[in-house]
Design a protein that fits this description.
two-stranded antiparallel sheet; alpha/beta; 270 residues; TIM Barrel; 8 helices; 8-stranded parallel β-barrel; 20% strand
Length: 270
């Protein structure tokens, strides 16, 4: 399997790569505070991380839900985080027209799970030359992601990451199938496990998604034991007042404790 290195964050090697950050950009000050806090925690533990936050959550359940600060302001904040904290940046795009400008700021372009089969979106991301992280659709079997990889490779995308974020299991429920990790690794790309979205109950509260936050450590530990190449977690300092995905963001105050456990598991299996 090909190793993907983004700045100093490695996915597919002996170390465990991390993608961490709040679900959505809430403000400049909050983003900088979160990035600095996560940097300090990961640095103490010897981890490297990519900072994640979205400038727009275009697929919120309700029209009334907070979507973010918008394209221009959001990218400006991510650019400042990158400059001030020195970390790599990942964010998602929802339209092909966004790819080129986003690529000028971020290190990784993320394709949301709901949009993972959208050929034009994948092609626009591939053409930027940036690393592309594609989240497996909740509606897809893991082997179906081979077609996604082929679409990206057709347009000379050299650095491809795949992320499992759970699979639809009836209405308003997801299941995490750890078999997905080695199955998708066989396509030659590192596989990341999204421990926070996998704990969601999509649309479970009617106007918003609910979730089972208490299951996040179990899911994360299971995925690391299964050999995933990285862990994705949305993290917030005030989970009850988070403006998006409040039910499944992991508390910043508990991040270090969980990462220590993941580090021990990783060291045991390598």
């Amino acid at each position: 399997m090909k190793e993907i290195v983004i700045n100093d964050v490695c996915f597919g090697g002996e170390s465990l790569g991390l993608i961490l950050g709040p679900c959505v950009i809430e403000s400049r000050d909050h983003s900088l505070m979160m990035a600095e806090s996560i940097h300090n925690i990961t640095n103490r533990l010897g981890f490297k991380f990519v900072f994640k936050s979205s400038f727009d959550k275009a697929n919120r359940s309700s029209i009334a839900s907070f979507r973010g600060l918008g394209f221009d302001e959001g990218l400006a904040i991510l650019s400042e985080v990158k400059k001030e904290i020195g970390c790599a940046i990942i964010t998602d795009i929802h339209e092909s027209s966004q790819a080129k400008m986003v690529a000028e700021v971020v290190d990784v372009i993320q394709i949301p799970a709901f949009l993972c089969r959208q050929t034009d979106l994948l092609v626009s991301a591939a053409k930027t030359g940036r690393t592309v992280n594609v989240k497996k659709g909740q509606f897809l079997a893991p082997w179906d992601m081979k077609n996604v990889v082929d679409k990206l490779k057709e347009y000379q995308c050299k650095k491809i990451l795949l992320t499992d974020r759970g699979t639809q299991f009836g209405y308003n429920n997801l299941i995490a199938d750890m078999r997905s990790i080695p199955i998708m690794q066989d396509f030659g790309s590192p596989v990341i496990f999204d421990a926070t979205h996998s704990a969601q109950l999509p649309g479970g509260d009617g106007l918003t998604s609910s979730g089972m936050r208490a299951m996040i450590p179990t899911l994360a530990k299971s995925a690391v034991a299964a050999g995933c190449d990285g862990v994705f977690m949305e993290v917030h300092n005030d989970i009850n007042n988070a403006k998006s995905d409040a039910a499944t963001q992991w508390p910043l105050s508990e991040l270090e404790h969980l990462l220590i456990k993941l580090k021990h598991i990783r060291e045991a299996i390598i």
